[in-house]
């Protein structure tokens, strides 16, 4: 049948399009992985080919040159710190705004949400000045607090939406049973909001870990600089080769890639809610 | 049944006053204080790290302050200077050029999402693969592509290999190819988020409607435009606004890694110009003025989604 034939051909073409885009999506990553396990001479001989022999020398050199353990530690401290602080603060606000008779709650909520319109790129210098005045420039707490401030609005929005759906009768029943507010929040509401909390935590981890501008400005070139700042500095050195830079890139992107593979659903749902960050 | 009591007799020398019931229950006041305590951490964070810098940015933008010296009040000089500055005009014009590529950003993820949603073979794999670029830090993406787009990099090698030698150019060093490359890399980095956004939008369309559209004998493209796209209009609008404002803030790490605003000013965009002016040229007042202009653009674009978030977050479930 002509109709069936053309329909089948159409389906093949559409699947082919999906495959082409998938190749385009993955090839740059594969090129970087393959380059990272080549020697400099091997790469120069055959930039596009598979490696003649796999070497880990580039990783060892990248680790040494970038002081990788220190960078990883810095990124871990600032990301986890910013993550925990922003989620905790968002939890408290969402509860106060949705479940307490707190006059002014809507205004506070509005203020926090509206601050989403303030991108770090636009206020980067006065933000740096503020952190400097607080005595936190080059310190973990400066970056942690900045991350928390920029991660907070999304969390507040998501958690308020979640708490909104919890019947007030449930809260009243818990109160009648003698539960205090913190018990209600952490024993009753937080467990119910686990899916939102998980998505929020993972999304915040990803953007904080991946961020360049805030750590670049707040940490500068200090010993506390983060992994992404370190990677950008590595690639700026004049005597580095493609394989060496590739190794640095792979180490930098691996933590988030692993998190994506393990928590794909939470990361995606967090990203969908948080794209406006 | 309530018991009413006669008012207490009042002293002859005082004007009569009705007894007033106590205004507030102690529990209510306590709950207000609790609420205030609970919002305090968030309020401190937002005020100290977002609002205070914004206000300081506005104040600094009215100062002439360069280098490491002090500053003096300069009125609107920084803003009038912006209007005459070729670099500022170029950066916003480049931003408009990038926004002009919006149709590509809207259509490509939409088509991919539709193909995935109708369960093309391997759809789960494609959905997972398309999101991978989004998980990679933009600075890493930028450095990765600087190597891929290098004159002797794999892209040019591929082009030469398939007989397209004339296209094997210095992508990052051409006046027009640099901006084109920047947009293409940004699209690579973020298209997966677009696919996911559309898939989420498609999930809100009743399954029967979609199935009817799929089973219809009409061709794929006709179904796409006559049935599904109209129902996705809110998602298209949301993603469009997101991309437009994203152009003004997402591209900083890519510019930093790929082109540093060059060649010349070919890829200068406002978010990079703020950084350059303030931290490399050390012109704080002028950098702050450009930053405030950038903030205004972003705020105008994103105020609609913020309004939606506020409405949704404070609406009582029905």
UniProtKB/TrEMBL annotation, chain A:
Q: Name one Pfam family in it.
A: BPD_transp_1
Membrane topology per the entry is:
Multi-pass membrane protein
Q: One of this protein's GO BP terms?
A: transmembrane transport
The regions listed as transmembrane in this protein's record are 12-30, 71-95, 107-128, 140-163, 184-209, 240-263
Please give the CDD domains that the UniProt record associates with this protein.
TM_PBP2 (cd06261)
Alphabetized, the UniProt keywords read: Cell membrane, Membrane, Transmembrane, Transmembrane helix, Transport
Gene Ontology cellular-component terms for this entry are: plasma membrane
Compartment(s) of residence: Cell membrane
Which PANTHER family does the record associate with it? ABC TRANSPORTER PERMEASE PROTEIN MG189-RELATED-RELATED, SN-GLYCEROL-3-PHOSPHATE TRANSPORT SYSTEM PERMEASE PROTEIN UGPE
Protein family membership: Belongs to the binding-protein-dependent transport system permease family.
Name used for this protein in its record: Carbohydrate ABC transporter permease
TrEMBL record, chain B:
UniProt topology in membrane: Multi-pass membrane protein
Q: Which InterPro entries match?
A: MetI-like, MetI-like_sf, UgpAE/MalFG_permease
The record's keywords, sorted A to Z, are: Cell membrane, Membrane, Transmembrane, Transmembrane helix, Transport
Q: Where is the composition biased (Low complexity)?
A: 1-14
Gene Ontology BP terms: transmembrane transport
Q: What is its main location?
A: membrane
The UniProt annotation puts the region (Disordered) at: 1-22
The subcellular location is: Cell membrane
Cellular component terms (Gene Ontology): plasma membrane
Is Heme among this UniProt entry's keywords?
no
CDD domains from the xrefs?
A: TM_PBP2
**Top-level taxon of origin:** Bacteria
Q: Which residues form the ABC transmembrane type-1 domain?
A: 91-305
Transmembrane portions of the chain: 32-52, 95-116, 128-149, 176-200, 236-258, 286-306
Q: To which protein family does this belong?
A: Belongs to the binding-protein-dependent transport system permease family.
Put simply, this protein is called Carbohydrate ABC transporter membrane protein 1, CUT1 family
Taxonomic lineage is: Bacteria, Bacillati, Actinomycetota, Actinomycetes, Micromonosporales
